[in-house]
Every structure is written in structure tokens, then in C-alpha cells.
């Protein structure tokens, strides 16, 4: 079936606008052109930023009750168009229609939580009389919006990760300019439509589509932008920190997530969670399972069961509800994954199953006997490949888990609470899931990592806090 090509407009300061030039949005499954989208210029990005700044400075702040009303209407709009959102996500990206529906549900929850947290944005009183001589002083601190937030989002969760930027920004009273991934801009534009329909005043939201090199750098470096919120790769994140200057920065930069499976683990539970965590979204998931360290006694049975579960996965048409794994975001990325796997094989790794590329598809792949100097062991592969290596004990598993410059999420399977708490203490990660894989998250929890996995924490309340500044108020009273 051929999908009709639709021309989209971008949102700049409340105005839907075409560009002088455009680019195609491609379905990675079959290279079909789904839509054309404006290719914004540097001048158009500057206009979006300066409009947001004028709006923030010159308008009265949006009252809390109005922010709640707008965000609630957005979530209602998304609920009504649930299947439309899901179809957009599945067609422009890598997710199957089933995975896309799940993402829409999560994004709705993200916006609803944002509405709830707007109500709870509070300060705190300060006991100034704790200092001698300050007995006649009373006061508090209050949170105020930072101003204009610049947000850059990736392709792998094209709706929910945009919701995680816009929802908290509006809940906190900020204006925000979003630059979505060029591969998957349609989900962000559809979400912007929901905010316009919900009555968000013009100027508070712009979604500018185009080249990261052309408009992304402008968004990062413009002096009016008071905070940069970025989700993406480590190399891009490091470049942003160098360019941004003295701005607030929040970054989630991916991972190489480990899962430890000890000899006393529930084998069926561990296999099911690790298989799902490794291969959902074709492995293009920042908290997806990439390295599994299994106790030697359990290792043979674990490998057999994991291979059996992996072979049973259905790879194919994203829009087929029976499909488990769709294509990667493009053929170039699939070829890169194939190169990384080949490099590991040259260094002595073994393929237990998978290792086949067909265009943008890469078959779910299990590697064993992977040496520590293989790229796939040290870096984030961001594809449907998982490593399974045996370990003698928990200490070895923790040492190997920590031996990378990432620390986003980890998992451990064990029925020994003492072993679980040892892992909690010693694993250098932002989140550790007990008797679950690394691939578990709810949108309210603080989400972020250590080392090269980022700066700060997302999760709605924590994003709102980072998008505000604390202002101290102190009254010096007369006797």
C-alpha cells in the first residue's frame, strides 16, 4: 500500500509555517517517502527563539490553573487521537505498531503527570533565626521558570521524549523551542498541534524542523536560551557542552546497560526480561540490555533458553501486530551494527544466533565470548545485539559491569537480598532494577545516569525542578 505524501508545516511562535526548502521523511522499512517537512534556516530558528523570549518577558505568566487546564486538554486530545499518533510513530520510525501504541500511552501519562506536578510546584520556608542576629528575619524560597528552554530530541522515542521536554517546561511556566530528530519529526509536530488546540498562548512553543548542524547549533548557542535539554548520543552531548556556554544543561546520553544473572535467579523470568530488553525497538533504546553477565552454573541453560526465545521473535512488517522486531532507523545504522559485530567476531566472539542484515533490518543477535577490547563491549551499539558472558561471582560481574564509561541503568536477577544490596551499593549507575532488566522505567521516576550517560535527571518532577530557578525572599521585620 502506498501512503500519500503529506506536506507538513513547522510551528514558529504560534504560526504554522512552510519553509523555503523541505526534506523528506522516509519510512525505514521500505524507503517510502511519507511526508515533506520544512528545512528551517538559521534565521527561522532565531525568530522562534526571539519570539519565545518576547512572549516570556512581556506576557503575564500563565497562571498555574491555566497550565493545568492546557496540559489536561493536551492529554485528552492525545487520547482521542491515540491510533493516529501510534501510526505516525510506527511509520516514521523503527517501532512496531504495538510498541508505538505503548509509547503513545506513556506520552499521555507524561503530559498528565506534568499537569499534576504543575499544581505541586512549591517553595519552602527558611528559618533565618537559626543564625544569631537574625531573630527578626523570616522568609522562604520560591521557584520561578528559567525563561526559554531549548530542547533537542532523538528518533527512538519520537513522541514521549518530546513530551518529556514540553510537558515539564510548560508546567513550570517556561517557553520552549524544540528541534526534533530529522528522521522522525512528524510525532513532534502532531504533539505541537495538540498544544495549539488546547489553547497554549502563541509564542510559548515552537517546533522547528531541519538540520542539527544548521539550526541545532543556533538553538544551543543563542544567548536567550537559558537551558538546554538534550537527549541523544554521547559525542553530540559532549559537543553541546562545549558550545552552550553558561547555561543550565540537562543531558541523557545513552548507555551500554548491563544485566547480572546470578546462579540462584529465576531462569524463566530472567530470559524473558533480557530478551525483551535487548530487542524491543530493534535495540534502539538507551536503557536496552546490551551486556549480560551470567553465573557459570546457570550459563549453559541461560544461553539455550535465550537463543530459543530470540529465534522465536518475528521480524517483519512494523504495521503487523504479530511483529516483534522492525527495521532500524535506516540502512546506514544497520550497516554500522553489522560492522561492529564483524569486528567482535574477528577478535574471537561467537554468534549464537542472528548476525544477518537485510537493508535496514538487522536480525536479533546474541554474541558470546566477546573480548573486552571489542567495540560492542565498550560502546553503545544501539541495535538488536546482546552480549552474554559467564562470570565466576557477583564481584566479577560488578567489576565488568562498571568497566565502561556509561552508567544509566542496570539490572540484577537474584533471590538473595544481600547480593541485591551489594549490587545496589557498588554498581555505578543511575538506576538499578532488581529481578528485572535494565529496560524498565516509569515516567515519574528520576531518570539519568553517571559518567558518560549524562548530566542531571529527567522524569517529570525532576525536569520541572531543573527548568526552574530558586529565588530566596527574606523579610527583615521591625521589633
TrEMBL record:
Source species: Halobacillus aidingensis
Lineage start: Bacteria, Bacillati, Bacillota, Bacilli, Bacillales
Function noted in UniProt: Part of the sulfo-TAL (or sulfo-SFT) pathway, a D-sulfoquinovose degradation pathway that produces sulfolactate (SL). Catalyzes the oxidation of 3-sulfolactaldehyde (SLA) to sulfolactate (SL).
SUPFAM superfamilies linked to this entry: ALDH-like
Protein's name in the database: 3-sulfolactaldehyde dehydrogenase
Family: Belongs to the aldehyde dehydrogenase family.
Reactions it catalyzes: (2S)-3-sulfolactaldehyde + NAD(+) + H2O = (2S)-3-sulfolactate + NADH + 2 H(+)
Pfam families linked to this entry: Aldedh (PF00171)
E.C. no: 1.2.1.97
Ranges for domain Aldehyde dehydrogenase: 21-473
Uppermost EC category: oxidoreductase
CDD domains: ALDH_y4uC (cd07149)
A molecular function (GO) term: lactaldehyde dehydrogenase (NAD+) activity
Keywords noted in UniProt: Oxidoreductase
Amino acid at each position: 500500500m502506498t501512503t500519500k505524501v503529506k506536506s507538513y508545516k513547522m510551528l514558529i511562535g504560534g504560526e504554522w509555517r512552510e519553509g523555503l526548502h523541505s526534506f523528506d521523511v522516509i519510512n525505514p522499512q521500505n524507503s517510502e517517502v511519507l511526508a515533506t517537512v520544512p528545512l528551517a534556516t538559521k534565521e527561522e530558528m532565531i525568530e522562534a527563539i526571539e519570539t519565545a523570549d518576547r512572549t516570556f518577558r512581556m506576557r503575564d505568566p500563565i497562571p498555574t490553573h491555566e497550565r493545568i487546564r492546557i496540559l489536561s486538554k493536551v492529554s485528552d486530545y492525545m487520547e482521542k487521537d491515540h491510533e493516529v499518533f501510534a501510526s505516525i510513530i510506527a511509520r516514521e520510525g523503527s517501532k512496531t505498531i504495538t510498541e508505538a501504541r505503548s509509547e503513545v500511552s506513556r506520552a499521555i501519562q507524561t503530559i498528565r503527570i506534568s499537569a499534576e506536578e504543575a499544581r505541586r510546584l512549591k517553595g519552602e520556608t527558611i528559618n533565618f533565626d537559626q543564625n544569631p542576629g537574625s531573630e527578626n528575619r523570616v522568609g522562604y524560597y520560591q521557584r520561578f521558570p528559567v525563561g526559554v528552554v531549548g530542547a533537542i530530541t532523538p528518533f527512538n522515542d519520537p513522541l514521549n521524549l518530546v513530551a518529556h521536554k514540553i510537558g515539564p517546561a510548560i508546567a513550570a511556566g517556561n517557553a520552549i523551542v524544540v528541534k526534533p530528530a530529522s528522521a522522525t519529526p512528524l510525532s513532534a509536530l502532531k504533539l505541537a498541534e495538540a498544544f495549539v488546540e488546547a489553547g497554549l498562548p502563541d509564542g510559548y512553543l515552537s517546533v522547528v524542523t531541519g538540520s542539527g548542524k544548521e539550526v541545532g547549533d543556533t538553538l544551543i548557542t543563542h544567548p536567550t536560551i537559558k537551558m538546554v535539554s538534550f537527549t541523544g548520543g554521547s559525542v553530540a552531548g559532549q559537543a553541546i557542552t562545549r558550545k552552550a556556554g553558561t547555561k543550565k544543561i540537562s543531558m541523557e546520553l545513552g548507555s551500554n546497560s548491563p544485566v547480572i544473572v546470578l546462579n540462584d535467579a529465576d531462569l524463566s523470568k530472567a530470559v524473558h526480561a533480557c530478551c525483551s530488553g535487548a530487542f524491543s525497538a530493534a535495540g534502539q533504546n538507551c536503557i536496552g540490555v546490551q551486556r549480560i553477565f551470567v553465573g557459570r552454573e546457570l550459563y549453559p541453560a541461560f544461553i539455550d533458553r535465550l537463543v530459543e526465545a530470540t529465534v522465536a521473535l518475528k521480524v517483519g512488517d512494523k504495521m503487523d501486530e504479530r511483529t516483534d522486531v522492525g527495521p532500524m532507523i535506516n540502512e546506514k545504522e544497520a550497516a554500522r551494527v553489522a560492522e561492529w559485530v564483524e569486528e567482535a567476531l574477528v577478535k574471537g566472539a561467537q554468534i549464537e544466533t542472528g548476525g544477518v542484515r537485510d537493508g535496514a533490518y538487522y536480525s536479533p543477535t546474541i554474541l558470546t565470548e566477546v573480548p573486552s577490547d571489542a567495540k560492542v563491549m565498550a560502546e553503545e551499539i544501539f541495535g538488536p545485539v546482546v552480549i552474554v558472558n559467564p562470570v565466576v561471582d557477583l564481584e566479577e560481574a560488578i567489576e565488568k559491569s562498571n568497566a565502561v564509561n556509561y552508567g544509566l541503568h542496570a539490572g540484577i536477577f537474584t533471590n538473595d537480598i544481600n547480593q541485591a544490596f551489594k549490587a545496589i551499593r557498588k554498581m555505578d549507575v543511575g538506576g538499578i532494577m532488581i529481578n528485572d532488566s535494565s529496560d524498565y522505567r516509569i515516567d515519574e521516576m528520576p531518570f539519568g545516569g553517571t559518567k558518560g550517560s549524562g548530566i542531571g535527571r529527567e522524569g517529570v518532577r525532576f525536569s520541572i525542578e531543573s527548568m526552574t530557578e530558586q529565588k530566596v525572599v527574606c523579610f527583615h521585620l521591625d521589633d
